[in-house]
Amino acid sequence: MQMGGRGLNSDINVTPFVDICLVLLIIFMVVTPMLQEGITINLPYAKKSLKHEDDDTHAVVVAVKTEKNGEQVVYVQKKPVPRDQYQAEMTEVHDRMPDKSILIKADRSMKYGDVRRIMIETNQAGFESVALVTEKVQGQED
Prior knowledge:
CATH topology of the domain at 45-136: Nucleotidyltransferase, domain 5
Strand content: 15-25%
Number of strands: 7
Order of helices and strands: HEEEEHEHEE
CATH class of the domain at 45-136: Alpha Beta
């Protein structure tokens, strides 16, 4: 004798699973852009600024900035490199990727002489194509 008509329900309730998946998706969508930001560099302004690609396929990106204590910090492809080991690191990079060009992102608060030394050491490591990355002045047209 059946008392309730149909018997046991053996279906899986997927609503909690979908809820958890959507929450995880939202978390990843919020966190991923934060991870891709990288190093904060205040680039100098220029009237004309060419577009550049930050990916590894076109160029090696070197970021340089001065910390509040006055110490220079150099990042090669987002990897911190001690300032006194920069040229040796760039020589190793050149041995692995001799055809790449170099994009130098130097903070606008850095002294010209310090940026110039980075450029010279990059050139001495074997790279011929070295460019400085700037931001275009707001309101300027090409």
